[in-house]
Amino acid sequence: FVAQECCVQNAAREYAKLYAAEAETLEGFGEVPEIIPIFLIHRPANNIPYATVEEELVGEFVKYSVRDGKEVNFLRRDSEAGQKCCTFQHWVYEKTSGNLLVTDLQGVGMKLTDVGIATLAKGYKGFKGNCSFSFIEQFRALHQCNEYCEMLGLKSLRTAHQKQRKATATKSKNLPNSSTGKKIVPKKAREHRDFLSSEH
């Protein structure tokens, strides 16, 4: 478990570095959230031989986002750090084509720790997160873009989600009818297929 914790946090840290490199070039963006490194240590003489070590964060500890995205947090919505964390989530989501999401962003000011990563069930480029892939769907449905999303030129997730739903609805309306001589798909089978295609 501790090895996975290190792997997840340090993977998220790499995404945060890339995000910072892009955001820092923008005029007026300002300070960028940083995910602090976490280290795995082996203590062979101890009953619990593995442990993690990281920098101590001093100050007010805030959860800017939670794993499932359902919690409403005013500090997340109203603070600069909170908005930039939400933008970071959106940036990672877009850069990975919706396959990966950094979640559970929390820490002191712009320094974050103990984060989570959600990937689709199959993982992303050989990496599997520690959170359910349903968090990706929830993020896509609940995320509201802010000024930092706009500064980075990120696409609105609401528009993309609505277009995808309309495309699925249009496909089901354009099924072949009996006049073309093709077989009509029974309604139950059609609903099942649409449900499966909407998951991909």
TrEMBL record:
Tree of life domain: Eukaryota
Subcellular location: Basolateral cell membrane
Compositional bias (Basic and acidic residues): 191-200
Catalytic activity from the UniProt record: L-seryl-[protein] + ATP = O-phospho-L-seryl-[protein] + ADP + H(+); L-threonyl-[protein] + ATP = O-phospho-L-threonyl-[protein] + ADP + H(+)
Main location: membrane
One GO location term (cellular component): basolateral plasma membrane
E.C. number(s) listed in UniProt: 2.7.11.1
Keyword vocabulary terms for this entry: Cell membrane, Disulfide bond, Immunoglobulin domain, Kinase, Membrane, Repeat, Serine/threonine-protein kinase, Transferase
Single GO MF descriptor: ATP binding
SUPFAM superfamilies: Protein kinase-like (PK-like)
Residue ranges of the region described as Disordered: 162-200
Biased composition (Polar residues): 169-181
Stretches assigned to the Alpha-type protein kinase domain: 1-157
Classification via PROSITE patterns: ALPHA_KINASE (PS51158)
InterPro entries in the record: a-kinase_dom (IPR004166), Kinase-like_dom_sf (IPR011009)
PANTHER family associated with the record: ALPHA-PROTEIN KINASE 2, ALPHA-PROTEIN KINASE 2-RELATED
Annotated family: Belongs to the protein kinase superfamily. Alpha-type protein kinase family. ALPK subfamily.
Role: Protein kinase that recognizes phosphorylation sites in which the surrounding peptides have an alpha-helical conformation. Regulates cardiac development and cardiomyocyte differentiation by negatively regulating Wnt/beta-catenin signaling.
Name of the protein: Alpha-protein kinase 2
